[in-house]
Design brief:
six-stranded mixed β-sheet; 9 strands; Rossmann fold; alpha/beta; three-stranded antiparallel β-sheet; binds adenosine-5'-diphosphate; binds magnesium ion; single chain
Amino acid sequence: MIALSGVSKRFSNGTQALSDVSFQIGEGEFVCLLGPSGCGKSTALRIAAGLLAPDSGTIAFTGGKPEIGFVFQEPTLMPWADTLANARLPLDLKRMPRGDADDRATRALARVGLAGFERAYPRELSGGMKMRVSLARALVAQPKLLLLDEPFAALDEITRNGLGDDLLKLWREDGLTVLFVTHSVGESSYLAGRVLVMTPRPGRIAANLVLPAGRDTRLAPPSIEAQRSISTALNETMAA
Ligand code: ADP
Ligand code: MG
């Protein structure tokens, strides 16, 4: 679905964020990009989304650039707009007629558990609910590829786990391709089918770990086994 090849990025202040990053993600995969803070995860994700140009290297999509949904770490909602209008934004930008757009946004909100909250304003919602609106907004244009940048990092553990389970359900139902950035070994060990471990800055891909099947719960033995192998790979790259 997407392939980054030899991608490097240096910011104008001289910070080398990425150095020769290459990876591929197949259609329908759920891949986590894991690495320490500041290693270039957000930079890689923004380059994958086409929001930022690399200095060198290429980004290729099989079958042309797909519809992409993007979820940021902060919900980034418009405080003056209600939940429905926030979720509808990508369709408004596509100039979809209001009636159709409202129908789709209503459905997207229902899918993330927010039926009945269409007229609520962001200030009336909890952190988890705001993130659900952000997820609905990312899904409303029915993307093939969903990119998420530490979306649940600011949430408490119980809320984070609930959102993770719901995201897995949406991924399965929609046959989405997901690239999920996180610095949490535990989160990646449960959510992903495959984990790309990055080195400290300048980020490179240090390991590509295919996780074992049978991770039906966070504490299932294969989930623990996955945690151990991801943790080992991360420690090795941090020590190198
Ligand atoms: P991560 O998401 O893994 O925490 P980032 O991709 O945000 O890392 O950043 C990688 C490095 O690039 C960091 O050192 C960060 O300070 C730097 N950086 C990020 N964006 C910019 C920018 N626009 N200008 C200059 N430096 C930046
Ligand atoms: Mg980041």
